[in-house]
Amino acid sequence: MVWRLQADRKQLPLLLLRLLCLLPTGLPVRSVDFSRSTDNITVRQGDTAVLRCFIDDKSAKVAWLNRSAIIFAGQDKWSLDPRVELDKRSVLEYSLRIQKVDVYDEGPYICSVQTQHHTKTSNVYLIVQVPPKISNISADITVNEGSNVTLVCIANGRPDPIITWRHLNPTARYFEGEEEYLDIQDITREQSGKYECKAANEVAAADVKQVRVTVNYPPIITESKSIEAITGRQANLRCEASAEPKPDFEWYKDDTRINSAQGLEIKSMGNRSTLVVANVTEEHYGNYTCVATNKLGVTNTSLFLYKRVIATKPIPAAERDSSNRFKQKGPGTVIADNGSISLAASIWLMAISLFFCLICKC
């Protein structure tokens, strides 16, 4: 029974043509073999397909069929599809034009030509190619370090698109052959960032979409440095930490937590925190602790604010001799700059000599 139904189905197009008087009743009936003498026409979705058919006799009776449906019989259009029309560039051409081709147009088409002497059929198989299109991709995700992550990217197209994954980091690592699923075991902080899914089948430009993976991990101190400061000037102690989520910072002087008061100010932004000492005094010197915390952990580091001592510059010997040369002033000055006896010294010597002479006479 099944065989009989299949056989009847194959003969249905020919029976329909007989009803249209395209095939005479006495002509032997042959079933159509789509695998023999079939031309393949490949068209991209949305383009126009032209299925060529040529006749030898202007008086021939022709028809176009698709599977078991009649599209055109002679000049009469049986299809209700407005996209389908005849493409007759000459009296001997009976081609079929299909505009805005879609996937449901794919399949076998038959051009049947009936003359007084013979019947000829042209078999055309229409192949519709579809550009790649990503229909579903994982949403952005946040996980803790060490978790297992599976990313999904589903794409459609004809032929089936090839899917590749790429981690958009400086090394731009590709994950080829993973198809729709990308599995990451024991994910690390270095594996966070954007992942790109690319679907390609050479029909058109590849379709590309991205998903962001955020990896949470506890803070670690990446930079801290003790500094020297001069009394009376400003000093900045800096502390940087890497963490996800971004860390919160606290500062301590010895065991006392510091607030933004008494000449101290804490400025924190992102992964960096700065302790600003506006006017350094003796009480500000000493040990400080920077503490970075998030929901996954806490870490700290110690920094020192040292006192800077400004060294005095030694005076050269020549400058010392020159500076001492004029320290003694007044009547006691004996040596002048040029090394000779000054006039004032001579007068004093003469006065003293005269004084002793008068005393001796007396």
Report what the structure shows.
This protein is mostly beta strands and 362 residues long. The protein has 3 domains: 2-130, Immunoglobulins (Immunoglobulin-like); 138-216, Immunoglobulins (Immunoglobulin-like, Sandwich); 225-307, Immunoglobulins (Immunoglobulin-like, Sandwich). Helices cover 12% and strands 45% of the residues. It contains 3 helices and 24 strands. The chain has helices at 2-19, 317-324, 343-361; strands spanning 38-44, 49-51, 61-66, 69-73, 76-77, 84-87, 95-98, 107-114, 119-137, 141-144, 149-158, 162-167, 174-175, 181-184, 193-200, 207-224, 227-229, 235-244, 248-253, 256-257, 264-269, 272-277, 286-294, 297-307. The strands form 4 sheets. Strands 1, 3, 4, 5, 8, 9, 11 and 14 form an 8-stranded mixed beta sheet that branches. The termini are far apart.
Layout of SSEs?
Blueprint: H1 2-19, E1 38-44, E2 49-51, E3 61-66, E4 69-73, E5 76-77, E6 84-87, E7 95-98, E8 107-114, E9 119-137, E10 141-144, E11 149-158, E12 162-167, E13 174-175, E14 181-184, E15 193-200, E16 207-224, E17 227-229, E18 235-244, E19 248-253, E20 256-257, E21 264-269, E22 272-277, E23 286-294, E24 297-307, H2 317-324, H3 343-361
Parallel strand pairs: 1-9, 10-16, 17-24
Antiparallel strand pairs: 2-7, 3-4, 3-8, 4-5, 6-7, 8-9, 9-11, 11-14, 12-13, 12-15, 15-16, 16-18, 18-22, 19-20, 19-23, 21-22, 23-24
